Amino acid sequence: MAKKHNHVLTAKQRKEHRFQNEKYLNGLQEKIEKFDMHTVKNLDRFEDFPITENTLKGLKENSFVSMTDIQRNSIISALRKNDILAAAKTGSGKTLAFLVPLMERLVHEKVTDMDGCCALIITPTRELAVQIFEVLTKIGRYNTFGCGLVIGGKDFKFESERINKINILIGTPGRILQHMDQSVNFELSNLKMLVLDEADRILDMGFRKTLDSILANLPPERQNLLFSATQTNSVKDLARVSLVNPVYINIKEDINTDHGNNNGNNDNDSTPVPQQLSQSYIVAPLYDKLNILWSFLKTHLSCKIIVFVSSSKQVHFIYETFRKLQPGISLMKLHGRQKQTSRIETTMKFSASNKSCLITTDVVARGIDIPAVDWIVQLDCPEDANTFIHRAGRAGRFGRSGNNLLILTPSEEDGFIKRLTSKKIDIKKLNIKNNKKKQIHQQLQSLCFKDPELKYLGQRAFMSYFKSIFIQKDKEVFKFDQYPAEEFAKSLGLPGAPKIKFLNKAANNSDDTDKLINRMKELKNTNRQLINLSKTDENGEVIENNDKKVRTKYDKMFERKNTTVLSEHYINMTNDREKDGQQEEQEEQEADDDFMTIKRKDHDLLKDEIPELHDLSSKRSLKKATSKKQSASSKGLGKKLIFDDEGNTHEVYEFIKEEDVKDNIKDLKKEFLENETQFMQKEDITDKALAKDKKLEKKRRRQELERRRLEEEEEESEGTIESEEEEISELPDIDEDFQSESEEDDEAPPLKKPKQWFQKDDDDMDKTAQKDVVEIEAPETLEDLEALTARLINN
């Protein structure tokens, strides 16, 4: 949170500033204590309340000027340091109802960075914690205390190094408890306020143990604020939070409020959804839900839709299958098993979009403010009426109109409608025309047949849905035995219903069914990292039960017989390898130098069709046998074959009728000739260029050989030296005797060797012989040269 710049002041000025600030705060405190609660109904603006200027400035800059009912009735009570238990309809502005008094309390307490954490806000989901943090940083930018956000999926070390300087801490129960256990500098002894947003969700069994551990480390003298759209009156739950004479505030459609302490006579659970939200439901078989959802999306392509399902596996399966089928609207997914960066990115992207569909679990069912949502589709029945209210509350917020559609199975209709009626929720029944409904069972079956991974997702979605039904408390609504498993599996594209293992455990231990249900609920809300840590020893190694190998998800996938269409073949192959393992190892050792080892045993290679496999001794034959391009070149063009009903192959022309060919045979012939003519013309050009290149290369090689031969003859002929005068006077005419035969054909005689300046032909030799020229050998030593000189002088 931004802080003011500290200007250099004198001691006298600082003293005067503190005196004026204390005087200002004391005046506000007197107004709070003397405030008449009966005049609250007549106040509509934040500036009508005794709130500091910095807080009012932050509210005004973010367009928070007028107050809602829950804000009007809770701010003054919170400023008087009373414990509050408040319930108000969704989208009524509960976030500001506790943030404003929280900031004012810290301002009056003169909190600084050295005081540590003085206010703690706990939320059930990460998305809600991020939203509260963003609102607090906007409206509290002119105050001088800091706020921090601690949620799972973020850097724990980074949070731990800075948590001691945070005055307002916002986080989820799991991460706050982790900091209490592991962060040395995290101190809560100076805590002034505890806020539980969506308190009924935090107080249920999903966070019971975690919240008990957090409350045990908090100072007992603190102010507690509990806010939610649906509130609990359980004495045990309220005693756990240590509420002292709480002020009950229940905002209904008729703005029925209680400003003082009471005995809890208000029906806190009867808070309806906003009036501008249209409520409707339809009854459909379980196996028809995906058809209805697909038809709904195809007819609402220009709307912003949120689809709620009961488990993250269903979210993943519906998202992947619908993404492949392409309904025509942008699809997004959000569930608790995603990484934190992906969750935040998806939330921001969906909030900024105008026409899209978000498939999600109840992770965004509470408190999340997503603007301009047109439709809420509750594909799976919520666990209770309160969850229904929270889901529906994502639309119709702050006076905007919205629609909510609930899809129930025939066994769920009577029981759940009775629960809604007890909450005074008016909902009307709709009927879907069969001609408006589109079937996608066959498309899903085709997708699962082609993609084994998608089929595996379908199996997990099937299991997670029935597990979510099995652990529900309200057995009058969720009648497990009346859900058609086989038909539901078929609607997901599966060939059969997977085996539900937890039913066998419940059947074998009928007395411990409730314990099994409670255990499954705890695992559903437990962090997976904590579960993995519990399965490791002191050295961090995984503890294996009964010396069994740790199985991966792929091992589990292949162990299921109905996982893939090739499961039977896979089992046969693995069995053969286990039986013949030693034999294969021996064969591999003997064939280390071989290129390949054939392990398949269910067929024989047709060597007549693959002649290259007969002899793999040469590199050329080896390359030709292993290369697709080389092997295809020897076989010519590929053939297109067609399979008949019995699985036999046929040429394409076998299925073409003679009448269809006669009409087009002339055109086909003409087209064939034209194509062949063009092809031959191109080949002629290529052949001519190739022939020309070969002829030039042959000529170049002939000249090179001739040049080498002449050089060799020159080396052999160097042997005689004549006098310089005679050689110069009797040099032969080189131009007349030299001829070039480079342009003659291949059968021409070899070129005549050109004469050098020291060589003489036969005629010249006769002339020199007549002149008594003495031929001598070339002198090799100095003595030979002196003898030669003497002879020449004597002659």
Automatic annotation (TrEMBL):
One of its GO terms (biological process) is rRNA processing. It comes from the Eukaryota. Residues 260-269 have a biased composition (Low complexity). Its main location: nucleus. Keywords: ATP-binding, Helicase, Hydrolase, Nucleotide-binding, Nucleus, Ribosome biogenesis, RNA-binding, rRNA processing. It catalyses: ATP + H2O = ADP + phosphate + H(+). This is ATP-dependent RNA helicase.
